[in-house]
Structure formats: structure tokens, C-alpha cells
């Protein structure tokens, strides 16, 4: 499977809370794939290593990664409706 370019999620760039909140908005529940995604998105571990060390198929990993990417895009689009500066 050829990897698409990620627009919003960068390796090693997410904080734990950001990752957990994005994950809540998806149907991703598999522990191994979640650990692989954590390794990649929070710790910056290369995809191949994250998949191998967690026993995850790269195709499965990328499907879940793009689900998180979609959730990130959705959150970005929703954010314009929340203006807390006027509170």
C-alpha cells in the first residue's frame, strides 16, 4: 500500500491528550494498532518499526492512521464554530 501524505498528523508531533481525543472520535479499538499509532504519532518511531514491534500489518496501520487524519481534519473544520475569546 502506498502511503498518502498526511496533512495534519506528523510523526512524533502529538501530545498524549491530543491523540486520546482524536482516538475517541473513531471506532479504533484494537490495542496493538493503538500502540503502533502511539509509537508513530507520539514517540516518532518509524512506521515499519512501530508496526513490527506491535505485530500490526502495515495496511491495517495506514487505514487506522487515515481514520485519525480524517478525525483531525473534522476537528479543524469544527474549531471555527468555537470562539472562546469573547467569554
TrEMBL record:
It comes from the Bacteria. It holds the Pfam family PapB. The keyword Transcription applies. Keywords: Transcription, Transcription regulation. One of its GO terms (biological process) is regulation of DNA-templated transcription. This is Adhesin biosynthesis transcription regulatory protein. It comes from Pseudomonas lutea.
Amino acid at each position: 500500500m502506498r502511503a498518502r501524505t498526511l496533512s495534519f498528523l506528523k510523526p512524533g508531533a502529538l501530545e498524549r491528550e491530543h491523540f486520546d481525543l482524536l482516538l475517541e472520535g473513531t471506532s479504533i479499538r484494537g490495542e496493538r494498532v493503538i500502540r503502533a499509532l502511539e509509537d508513530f504519532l507520539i514517540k516518532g518511531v518509524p512506521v515499519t518499526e512501530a508496526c513490527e514491534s506491535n505485530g500490526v500489518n502495515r495496511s491495517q496501520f495506514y487505514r487506522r492512521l487515515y481514520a485519525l487524519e480524517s478525525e483531525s481534519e473534522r476537528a479543524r473544520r469544527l474549531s471555527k464554530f468555537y470562539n472562546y475569546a469573547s467569554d
